[in-house]
Amino acid sequence: MMESIRTVFTPSNVSFMMEGLKLALLISVGVVILSIIFGTVLGLLRNYDKKFFGKLAGAYIELFRNTPLLLWMLSCSFLIPGSTITLKGSFALFLYTSAVVAEIVRGGLNSIPKGQFEAAHSQGFSFMQSLWYIVLPQAFKKIIPSLLSQVITTIKDTSFLAGLGIMEFTRSGQVILGKVTKTSEVFLVYGFLALVYFIICFTLSTVVRSWHKRNAEHA
After folding, report:
1. How confident is the model at residue 219 (pLDDT cuts 50, 70, 90)?
2. Which residue segment(s) compose the domain that 152 sits in?
């Protein structure tokens, strides 16, 4: 076993996998930030615009939420001209995650009493001012745990990028697998990937639970 450990976890192999992890985390952060912005716009449109743009946002959300992520990654990799495969795959992940975030935001908006708009209007606030200064801050406070849970999901979803050959964490592990010959070494590589994903996601899950607990105590 010690020989297998030395074979798998050479400095070059570990450094190679850590570079893959770095890329996966960078993609996750970028996708989450952009998805929160775009997803908020989609959620607002679907919730408050009952005409064309609201229906368009609803169609977008339902389309992406009810189709496989890998399908969109493959579609973007073939249909989008130019650019790198990493950007194409990340773009597909962004489109998919935005639809999920939109529903999270919409749930937060629906949890705010409609009387908040009436009270804001009585104070001279316009509809947009009411959203920006009163409704959205309250909605986001309620959905932070759900957004953190989506961050965890997005980190795990970056593993789908391995199917496009993008050298993120899972793909880097697959490359290392091509160098090993023993079954024990295969288990070590997969075990290492699983352990790192677990540590990151479990840590974030602990943050989510702590947030829930604090909110419950102050409710």
Report:
1. low
2. 11-178
